[in-house]
């Protein structure tokens, strides 16, 4: 995975970036609020802390993805912020930062979740046809029409049935239409 410069704060990690102890991400609203897991392994930093970090300063976001076959990609965005709890920890994501057209297209699929409030199985803010967090097993900024184009807090692939036509688990549909082995999200103050 490629990091340009330093100063990154990892806000979520899944898979091999940690020590590979499996942490389930199908958690309650309060667990996502305060965070869970271990910082040296799989974890969610906590929506309240992420909100504070992303509203004190303007931040950029990098998301690192690794497929089961070892392919990897790093996607960067020029802005990342989540609102406070009273607004549902709503996602505000900026434009992809890439000079490579295909990478920009892949990164753009996360923008389908822009302005979505965070949902968990016990607090559905998706505004759609289903409680997406309950249906797919994890908290996320779900799209009101399709639930997700990107879902990085899903159950690990060894906990879900693999289906080629509609993969479940940790996915980024516009990059690999399959469950992913490892992902991490990190932010840093823009310079």
Structure characterization notes:
- With 191 residues, the chain is of the alpha+beta class.
- The protein has one domain: Gamma Fibrinogen, Chain A, domain 1 (Alpha-Beta Complex).
- Helix content is 15%, strand content 24%.
- It contains four helices and ten strands.
- The protein has helices spanning 29-34, 47-56, 101-108, 132-136; strands at residues 9-14, 36-37, 43-44, 59-67, 72-77, 80-82, 91-93, 150-151, 171-172, 180-189.
- The strands form three sheets. Strands 2-3-1-10-4-5 form a six-stranded antiparallel β-sheet. A two-stranded antiparallel sheet has the order 6-7. It has a two-stranded antiparallel sheet with strand order 8-9.
- A hairpin with a 4-residue loop joins strand 4 and strand 5.
- The longest helix has 10 residues, at 47-56.
- The chain starts with 8 loop residues before the first strand and ends with a strand.
- The model is unreliable at 159-166 (pLDDT under 50).
- Pfam families: Fibrinogen_C.
- It comes from Leptotrombidium deliense.
- One of its GO terms (cellular component) is extracellular space.
- This is Techylectin-5B-like protein.
- Residues 1-191 form the Fibrinogen C-terminal domain.
Number of strands: 10
**N-end to C-end Cα span:** 21 Å
Largest sheet: 6 strands, antiparallel
Mean pLDDT: 87
The helicity comes to 10-25%
CATH superfamily: Gamma Fibrinogen, chain A, domain 1
Order of strands, widest sheet = 2-3-1-10-4-5
Low-pLDDT segments, ≥5 res:
159-166
Give, in order, the helices and strands: EHEEHEEEEHHEEE
C-alpha-based Rg, rounded: 15 Å
In CATH, the topology is named Gamma Fibrinogen, Chain A, domain 1
CATH architecture classification name: Alpha-Beta Complex
């Amino acid at each position: 995975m490629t990091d340009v410069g330093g100063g990154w704060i990892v806000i979520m990690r899944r898979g091999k970036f940690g020590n590979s102890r499996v942490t389930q991400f199908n958690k309650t609203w309060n667990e996502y609020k305060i965070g869970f897991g271990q910082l040296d392994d799989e974890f969610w930093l906590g929506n309240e802390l992420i909100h504070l970090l992303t509203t004190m300063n303007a931040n950029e976001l990098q998301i690192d993805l690794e497929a089961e076959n070892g392919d990897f990609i790093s996607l960067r965005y020029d802005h990342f912020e989540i609102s406070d709890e009273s607004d549902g920890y709503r996602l505000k994501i900026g434009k992809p930062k890439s000079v490579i057209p295909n990478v920009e297209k892949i990164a753009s699929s996360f923008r389908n979740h822009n302005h979505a409030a965070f949902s968990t199985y016990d607090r559905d803010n998706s505004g759609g046809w289903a409680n997406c967090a309950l249906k797919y097993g994890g908290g996320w900024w779900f799209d009101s029409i399709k639930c997700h184009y990107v879902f990085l807090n899903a159950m690990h692939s060894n906990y879900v049935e693999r289906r080629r036509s509609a993969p479940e688990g940790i996915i980024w549909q516009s990059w690999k239409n399959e469950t992913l082995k490892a992902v991490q999200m990190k932010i840093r103050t823009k310079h």
